Amino acid sequence: MDNRTGSRIPGFYNLSLEERLAELARRAELSSEDIATLSGSSGLTVAQADHMIENAIGLHALPLGIGLNFMINGRDVLVPMAIEEPSVIAGASFMAKLAREGGGFHAHTTPPEMIAQMQILNVTDLATARLAILGQKDSLLAEVAEIDPVLEQLGGGPRDLEVRQIGNSPVGPFLVVHLIYDVRDAMGANALNTAAERLAPRLATLTGGRVHLRILSNLADRRLARSRCTIPLPKLAFEGYSAEEVRDGIIAAWAFAAVDPYRAATHNKGIMNGVDAVVIATGNDWRAVEAGAHAYAARSGGYTSLSTWGRDAQGNLVGTLEMPMAVGIVGGATRVHPTARAALKLMGVTTANQLAEIIVSVGLAQNLAALRALATEGIQRGHMSLHARQVAIAAGAEGETIERLAQQLVIEKKVRIDHAIAILNSWKAAKS
Ligand code: MEV
What we know:
Layout: H1 17-28, H2 32-39, H3 46-52, E1 64-72, E2 75-82, H4 88-101, E3 105-109, E4 113-121, H5 126-135, H6 137-145, H7 149-153, E5 157-166, E6 174-182, H8 189-207, E7 210-216, E8 224-231, H9 243-259, H10 261-281, H11 286-297, E9 307-311, E10 317-324, H12 332-336, H13 338-347, H14 352-374, H15 380-394, H16 400-411, H17 417-431
Antiparallel strand pairs: 1-2, 3-8, 4-6, 4-7, 5-6, 8-10, 9-10
The structure holds (R)-mevalonate.
């Protein structure tokens, strides 16, 4: 998608489902097949699922929505988000609109380098064994380079070998070898695990030890995605809140997460609301991204916020987010799952790094949405009106009655299923 069409679609929320899909098709040049897939009327089949996992019996659906207003590195992107929680997509879209006013999101990534770990037990002399491995580094790297010639052609492949000495553990001392591997546009788990298993016999011979675990690390701290946004101060004012009040409230809310792990866990969960929604929509491994995020948040020894919020010289609000982002656009479910393929097409991403830049920006927008609400009116007001729709549906409302009933529940400040049923019954009785 290009900037002529853009990611701003005023009134998208009020369009019918069909109209929204038509708008997407127009803006992102999607085929009717892509649209059918995104809408859920076609997509992954049970037969395909049967080839993906064991004991398959069916499919499990999630709502898929579009994050609007995102401008990332000067490019407009419509962001597919798969999530069951209300408020998330609305929050991210609204914050992306504010961020646009300050130039949008500026994102970048480090090279897509992942780490595979090999644990070597029963080593008599750790220091000597370490040097034995490092002395053969070039030939060890050359050996794993042969594993995937395609990746090599694309500019990926093994980059480095590091050896760590663990002097003390419940099973005594051991060595840990890290293979650094550039996986380009793949998530990389298969390439890494294959490489780790390939190296094991030579490492055993070199050290005289026994190679035990051979597996990638989800603390992908060499494959980072970073995003920054600036919200112009005047844009922060709303209702009875001054811009300064909102800005300083957001910064104070961030400071809480920066120093307190109890708050940081919730703060980072808010970031992951946005991150996971895109990771899932694109068929990526959200457990890997979650594991990497939280381990990275604890890298200093204490668990802290993944984001930062502060002010620039002009008093504008500035946010940053940095986190590991092990996502791919080739291989695995990203290729097999039709919705994941259509989601990638919608965003027009051509590299895994571009996808990572979008995801980290959505995480930052989501974090801002939560902090802005928490620092001012609290999250329940916005949350409740969306939650009320779910309660209305659960109570049996259909069609236009859903919105009417939801509004009534919010007005009466009783967003409860029993009350929703009672209202529905009273409306039915009045009609008959
Ligand atoms: C809810 O899903 C996410 C929040 O709790 C995040 C936060 O507290 O920052 C609102």
